[in-house]
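Private note to self, pasted from the team thread so I don't lose it. Backbone tokens:
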């Protein structure tokens, strides 16, 4: 390796010949630390503090490898963990992965395979460190503890935030409730040249039209009943900073017109005033609705939509990044254990399986609330199935195993199924399906080609007809 500083690897193996053999094989390219037990490995992790990869035998006297990696992964920062075993059963591999292991190798170790796994593991660790650095930068100023993830879609999200933030462009954040849209808005503000200016948030759905208009633009004394004083609106309060409009889809059409003018001319008037004011703000908007579909249904102004939709940031639902659940769980577990003076570091594999099999309709917010409940009610020093909320245990919802079986195996498959469902819903009409999906017909055609869906989708007719309906091409 060409790096000046060798990556630090901790090899944990109670069999001396295997331990020394791995040290000899890795010593040229890595700084290798050795431990003959799990207990010794934990002491080394505490003392050294810079171990990037932990390679541990599965079966050792005293603490076994699974227990060791669970405790190692509870540290911050945690090493990437690789397990070795002579008992290469599928059950062991699955259990290791559920415990957070990066990979699983059987003994005797194939050194070429180990080298490839180490290279991938170190790249994963590098990406994790970059994400952690960004999160710490954000946390330091804005407490964005929920922006956590290592899956590809979250890597793309962090990269997009960094690209968008320095610009002046209006940003539209889309995502289901609980995915963290306001946190992303804070991140955009905090990483922008306007970071020293104010961040002003308005939750548009919480106010009727008359109050929202006054809230946004301000009002003069006597402008309406109850207006006993002049009041500055959020556009004035956000001067030099960022104005965040959450649930912008709920804005009344009258206010949509006024908002469009501000975006086009950067000018507005307080309610009851003829004085024109300027707005030096950066606008970030968020919605959990399909604005493109609302435009098509004449429920949202198309000109305002295009003004808002300069840069779109789409937040993935938690069900599309299931592999982030262990990372999120560990974070929330540490947070709520500290708050409640409890010593909870672990979760049983079956409890983790249930969490990863649940659909999470409330997304990260629901997971956070669930972990807080589990910590408060836990009776032991580890979380078990009995600590899970009833809905996750399956008492008020389909079983975790059933939902896991029903879930598509990849985001690509989920997208394919979504497109097929839209086509079925509109009897093969591609124009209507594209509107439902919030994409253009050209994008839909491209997706159909990518997924290998035939040129003419054979949808089932809704009712028997004498002649098949003409389908949109």
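Design output:
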């Amino acid at each position: 390796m060409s790096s000046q500083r060798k990556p630090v690897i901790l090899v944990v193996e109670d069999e001396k010949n295997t331990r020394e053999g791995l040290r000899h094989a890795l010593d040229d390219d890595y700084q290798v630390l050795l431990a003959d037990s799990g207990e010794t490995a934990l002491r080394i992790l505490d003392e050294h503090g810079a171990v990037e990869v932990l390679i541990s035998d599965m079966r050792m006297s005293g603490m076994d490898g699974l227990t060791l990696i669970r405790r190692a992964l509870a540290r911050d920062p945690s090493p990437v963990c690789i397990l070795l075993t002579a008992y290469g059963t599928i059950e062991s591999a699955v259990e290791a992965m559920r415990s957070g292991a990066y990979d699983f190798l059987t003994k005797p170790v194939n050194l070429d395979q180990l080298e490839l796994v180490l290279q991938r593991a170190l790249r994963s660790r590098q990406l994790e460190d970059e994400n952690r650095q960004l999160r710490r930068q954000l946390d330091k100023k804005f407490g964005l503890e929920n922006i956590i993830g290592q899956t590809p879609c979250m890597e793309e999200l962090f990269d997009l935030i960094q690209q968008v933030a320095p610009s002046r462009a209006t940003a539209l954040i889309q995502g289901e409730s609980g995915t963290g849209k306001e946190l992303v808005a804070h991140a955009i503000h905090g990483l922008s040249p306007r970071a020293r200016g104010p961040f002003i948030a308005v939750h548009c759905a919480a106010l009727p039209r008359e109050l929202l208009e006054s809230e946004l633009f301000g009002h003069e004394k006597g402008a309406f009943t109850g207006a006993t004083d002049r009041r500055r609106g959020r556009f004035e309060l956000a001067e030099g900073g960022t104005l965040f409009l959450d649930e912008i889809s709920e804005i009344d059409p009258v206010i949509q017109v006024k908002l469009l003018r501000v975006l086009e001319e950067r000018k507005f008037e307080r309610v009851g005033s003829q004085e024109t004011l300027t707005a030096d703000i950066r606008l970030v908007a968020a919605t959990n609705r399909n604005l493109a579909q609302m435009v098509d249904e004449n429920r949202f102004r198309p000109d305002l939509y295009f003004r808002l939709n300069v840069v779109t940031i789409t937040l993935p639902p938690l069900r599309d990044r299931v592999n982030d659940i262990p990372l999120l769980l560990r974070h929330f577990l540490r947070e709520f254990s500290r708050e409640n003076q409890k010593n909870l570091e672990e979760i049983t594999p079956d409890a983790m399986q249930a969490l990863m099999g649940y659909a999470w309709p409330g997304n990260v917010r629901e997971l956070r609330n669930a972990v807080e409940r589990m910590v408060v009610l836990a009776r032991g020093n580890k979380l078990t199935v009995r600590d899970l909320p009833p809905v996750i245990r399956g008492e008020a919802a389909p079983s975790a195993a059933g939902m896991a079986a029903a879930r598509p195996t990849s985001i690509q498959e989920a997208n394919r199924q979504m497109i097929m469902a839209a086509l079925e819903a509109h009897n093969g009409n591609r124009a209507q399906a594209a509107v439902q999906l919030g994409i253009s017909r050209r994008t839909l055609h491209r997706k159909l080609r990518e997924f290998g869906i035939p040129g003419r989708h054979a949808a089932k007719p809704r009712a028997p007809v004498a002649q098949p309906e003409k389908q949109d091409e």
